Amino acid sequence: MENKIINLGIFGFGVVGQGLYEVLNRTKGINARIKKICIKDPNKPRPIDASYFTTDKNEILNDPTIDVVVELINETEAAFEIVSTALRNGKAVVSASKRMIAENLPALYQLQVENKVPFLYEASSCASIPIIRNLEEYYDNDLLNAVEGICNGSTNYILTKIFEDNLSFETALQQAQDKGFAETDPTLDIEGYDPKFKIVILLLHAFGTFVKPEEVFNFGIHHLNDFDIQFAKQRNCTIKLIGNCRRQNGHVNAYVLPHLIREHNLLYDVYNEYNGVLLESAFTDKQFFVGKGAGGTATGSAVLSDISALLYNYRYEYKKIKQSNQPAFTNDVQLKIYLRYSNASQVHLTDFYNISEKYESSTYSYVVGVINLQKLKGAAWLKNKDVNLLVLGEDHAR
Q1: Tens of pLDDT along 130-152?
Q2: pTM for the complete prediction?
Q3: CATH code reported for the domain at 136-292+326-396
Q4: Fewer Cβ close by (within 10 Å): the C or N end of the chain?
Q5: CB contact burial 204-225 (16+ within 10 A = b; e otherwise)
Q6: Which fold has domain 6-130+296-320?
Q7: Which one of the listed residues 36, 98, 196, 198 is annotated catalytic?
């Protein structure tokens, strides 16, 4: 595509679609123009000329003059159909749909191989942070030990407002929704599903390991209460929702869990809708990336970066898939956690390897101890709203 104008066919014109339109029009030197935008509701008021829009997906998918399909919709099955059809039709594709990508990674990888067309999705993982391209181009599998960080701007905004401005969870969530950082239904964010989809994608680019989303345990901030917040503050800590994948002894483990973060941890000072990602490798120790993780222009800029990369014939090479030492996925790893509950009948304390601290009161009690991740993943008692957990233990970001 070098030295030509790229014609774009866009699916979806919500927050990210409008963000892309804005950054594309404000950026000089990128030879790309929007030819058609496919939307569901033709009667919805939109800030640009109606001639851009269509409700017929085939106007984009079957148009030979459209070079790149940009997929920015929220419906997982429809998004996969759009992307797979476009790839089969020989069109390059850019997407921001983390759930669709995470749930279909093996098939999407195969479609790229079979049709010899690029599929780029930097915006799906950490919005403005170019983490996928760094993992692809810079970090050899033998050297990379861990990828961890804050990869959901919505929950980080909520937690920042709770700890910095002393807002209630409900008020902070409403603010996040009002600013467009959280959806009307915030379940995927606050329960940790959104960052889990991102971790599944990063696992592939970091270690060459395909993992199904349901294999990765996620538990969000939806059970957080004032008792937990006071527990953190009394220890001069904050709480962050962390996605983590780490290679150990020939295996790789991954999870998304709320963590107790101390002040010396680099993630401590990642505020509001920002994301922060730490990479740990054998020779470079730790490297830290930070950038906006939510909002239309932040995500739109990552989409535009992928479009720009296509001008130079860039594609993911998936080098780590082709190596012979991909680590197998496991949930057999021990975590040190704080577990809060109202009464002991709500939890199975016998699931712990050991308990180093215990507190009991008439309202809430807690223990601090070591438990296996596989036990947590299968723990029905975590569904009780009077039960919450925070990961403690060694900080990896000093």
Answers
A1: 999 999 988 876 689 999 999 99
A2: 0.95
A3: 3.30.360.10
A4: C
A5: bbbbbbebebeebbbbbbbbbe
A6: Rossmann fold (3.40.50)
A7: 198
